Each structure stands twice: as structure tokens, then as C-alpha cells.
Amino acid sequence: MAHVELDAIHHLPGWEPIQRDAFREEVARRCADDGWVVDGNYSAVRDLVWQAADTVVFLDLPRPRVMKQVIRRSARRVVTRQELWNGNRESARSWVRPDHPIRWSWSQHARKRRNYALVLADPVHGA
């Protein structure tokens, strides 16, 4: 079964985001194959993924657990200099950016939780 990691498609070298049309094209190509699991949920491609999916799993974790996991993961990546996608690595300096996963997770948790509840309840998605 193919593992499709949306971050790996979205983040080009130097953390540059892929163009929206190219992102949608690549995700559509991968979702056209049989037997895949998509990791991530970008609104730019949600319609493509959900339309092709037979099951959607949303982990509604409490903020403290999310933050513990995100902080540990980011700290490990900084210490080990783990390459993520396309040569990109996290650095301690990047933690001050507003889009860093730690800051983003904290600021978006409640909003995303509300939004996913609405999206998942929409009859269009088979709920």
C-alpha cells in the first residue's frame, strides 16, 4: 500500500511551497492508484483525497497531547538534524517563525477542531 505524505509533496527544497495547481495534479495522480494512505490534510487537495478515499480518519486529540507530540518531534529533529522532505531540516532558529509546527499547532488547534467537526458532519462527505 502506497504512503502519500502531503508535506513531502507540498514542501520543495528551501521550504518553498509547491504551486497549488502542481500540488493538486500530483495528489490527484497518486490518489488515482489503487491502495494508498494519505498522511495530512491540506484544504487545497481535500476534495481530491476525500473523493477518492473509502475511509477518512480524523484524530481529535486534546491540545496538551498534540503539543507534547509536536514539541518532542521538533526537538528531536533539531538535535538529530533529520532530513524531512527535499533536503529540508528543522532548526532551532525556525521555532520563532509563525508557521513553525509548534506555533501553528498551538494557534490553529481549536479552529481546526471546530472546522473538521463541521466538514465531517456535512452530508456531502457521507456522514
Short overview:
By secondary structure, this protein is mainly alpha-helical.
Walk me through this protein's architecture:
By secondary structure, the protein is mainly alpha-helical. Helix content is 50%, strand content 6%. The protein contains five helices and two strands, in the order E-H-H-E-H-H-H. The protein has a two-stranded parallel ribbon. Helix 4 (63-80) packs across helix 5 (101-121). The mean pLDDT is 90.
Question: What attributes does this structure have?
Answer:
127 residues, mainly alpha, two-stranded parallel sheet
Determine the oligomeric state from the structure.
single chain
Q: Could you tell me the radius of gyration in angstroms?
A: 16 Å
Q: Note the run of SSEs as H and E.
A: EHHEHHH
End-to-end separation in angstroms reads 26 Å
Helix and strand arrangement:
Elements: E1 2-5, H1 6-10, H2 20-31, E2 36-39, H3 46-52, H4 63-80, H5 101-121
Parallel strand pairs: 1-2
